[in-house]
Design brief:
Structural class: mainly alpha
Strand content: under 5%
Radius of gyration: 18 Å
Order of helices and strands: HHHHHHHHHH
Largest sheet: none
């Protein structure tokens, strides 16, 4: 049954998203909000395919009890408050460390967009309605629990990360939508993106296993990672494609250093391996 659910989830998520994106790839602007309304609508409808597929399949296979269980994983418990801070903060910390490394290696940033500073809280929070809510009821709400993440966290992280990365594939050829959108689509660039997404998947699984699969935590991780990257680009608009690629490679390296450190934790309260 788990295999059937997994296959159906992948099929629905991919067909729904790719069906929305493929017809309008060349019309998606660098800022999606600059796209014409119908393109923007299809862009975001496709983005919600994991969440819609996850909720639909939960209702289809498990009925009301399944939906109630999914809803219960949105509850925040006092003992998990520290994990809220970790979930929301891991993205800014990773981007901050990567940016520091970029500067140490003599990376160029140009002028700082100081006019953005008063708007940072809004710029950080608003994206929650996009990737975080659009995807996490699917990836971590439905898919990850099917893969026994407590007993097989490494395997589960790699599988979810691969499926998650591949789902983005059409957007590689759009001007926006992924970290490598706007770059020339090459095997090394695609490989770099997959390595980054799979690395991120380990972070999600770590928090998932320490918070009883809480979906809010996954939403916060997604928000922190996406918003931090967006803010970096908006604060330093003079960074060209080459500079952004240098930064992204450093970011991926920092991410995997953190992943390795997390995997080595053996504490029953903080550990990655829970089996």
């Amino acid at each position: 049954m788990k295999q059937k659910k997994l296959i159906l989830f992948i099929v629905l998520s991919y067909i729904f998203a790719w069906g929305c994106w493929l017809p309008v790839l060349d019309k998606i602007e660098s800022s999606p909000f600059d796209s014409v309304p119908v393109v923007l609508l299809l862009f975001f409808i496709g983005a919600y395919s994991p969440t819609l597929a996850g909720i639909f399949l939960t209702a289809f296979f498990d009925g009301k009890s399944g939906l109630q269980e999914l809803k219960s994983r949105l509850r925040l418990r006092r003992k998990e408050m520290k994990w809220m801070l970790i979930s929301l903060g891991i993205g800014p910390v990773l981007v901050g460390l990567a940016f520091l490394g970029y500067l140490v290696l003599n990376g160029q940033v140009g002028e700082v967009n100081v006019g953005l500073l008063p708007w940072l809280p809004i710029v950080f929070i608003v994206p929650v309605i996009f990737g975080p809510l659009a995807e996490e009821f699917g990836w971590r709400g439905f898919l990850l629990p099917l893969l026994d993440p407590r007993s097989r966290p490494i395997r589960s992280s790699v599988i979810v990360g691969f499926i998650w990365a591949l789902w983005h594939a059409p957007l590689f050829w759009a001007k926006s939508g992924t970290a490598i959108s706007g770059f020339e689509v090459t095997i090394p660039m695609v490989a770099l993106f997959f390595v980054a997404v799979i690395g991120s998947s380990f972070i999600y699984t770590w928090v998932f296993n320490n918070t009883s699969g809480n979906i809010v935590m996954a939403i916060l991780i997604h928000l922190g990672m996406n918003s931090s990257g967006t803010i970096r680009g908006m604060l330093f608009p003079d960074m060209g494609l080459g500079d952004s690629l240098d930064f992204y490679m450093i970011y991926v390296a920092v991410l995997w250093v953190v992943v390795v450190l997390i995997i080595t934790i053996r504490s029953p309260r903080w550990g990655f391996l829970k089996g």
